[in-house]
Write a structure and sequence with these properties.
It is built from four helices and nine strands, in the order αβββαβββββααβ. By secondary structure, the chain is of the alpha+beta class. It folds into two domains: about 55 residues, no CATH class; about 90 residues, no CATH class.
Length: about 190
């Protein structure tokens, strides 16, 4: 009898004749002792007086119960994949829409920009932020225009505060901000 049936079901050799007769009646392939012919097939296997089906492949058998468990596990995995994808899509909806924009002017007669300044506008569900990351400045509003105007005002206020503060009293970061602002903003005459 084929080496493929090694599943611990007891002494199957007693049922070999009945099994071979069953296989012949149903026109099913016969067992083979050669490994070359051991392929994946659904094969009836005798258990006492009843016949169950087993998948035979390279010396191992998996009966219908194991196959059913495997099917349920595969179904659970598909369900988990769907849940993960739904969570990923839900998380993506919480991310803002990000738009790079350039500023060309400031709302002041005292200051003007030397060159366009790159900023980032982030749109959230309930607010819009305008960011100037180099200076850690942020303007906010209900729409892009309000957020950008708020950021422009913050740029002017920061520059004026830094100009009014003696250089010796500025920390390392404020000194860098002041130099950066002096490169992009100039006083009007």
């Amino acid at each position: 009898m084929c080496e493929a049936i090694k599943s611990g079901w007891g002494n199957i050799s007693d049922s070999t004749t009945k099994l071979d007769d069953y296989r012949l009646k149903k026109n099913l392939p016969q067992f083979s002792d050669s490994e070359e012919e051991a392929e994946v097939i659904m094969s009836p296997v005798m258990r006492g007086n009843s016949v169950t089906f087993a998948t035979i492949s390279n010396g191992y058998t998996y009966d219908a119960v194991k196959s059913d468990r495997l099917s349920r596990i595969e179904e659970d995995i598909r369900g988990l994949k769907a849940m993960i994808q739904e969570a990923i899509n839900k998380d993506r909806s919480n991310f803002p829409t990000t738009i790079p924009i350039q500023l060309f002017s400031l709302p002041s007669d005292k200051y003007k920009l030397r060159s366009p300044v790159n900023i980032i506008v982030e749109k959230y569900d309930d607010e819009v932020l305008a960011l100037l990351p180099e200076l850690t400045l942020c303007g906010e509003g209900e729409n892009e225009f309000e957020a950008i105007d708020d950021l422009k005002t913050d740029i002017i206020e920061l520059l004026e505060d830094l100009e009014d503060t003696p250089e010796a009293d500025l920390g390392k970061a404020p000194k860098l901000w002041k130099r950066s602002l002096e490169l992009i903003v100039e006083k009007c005459q």
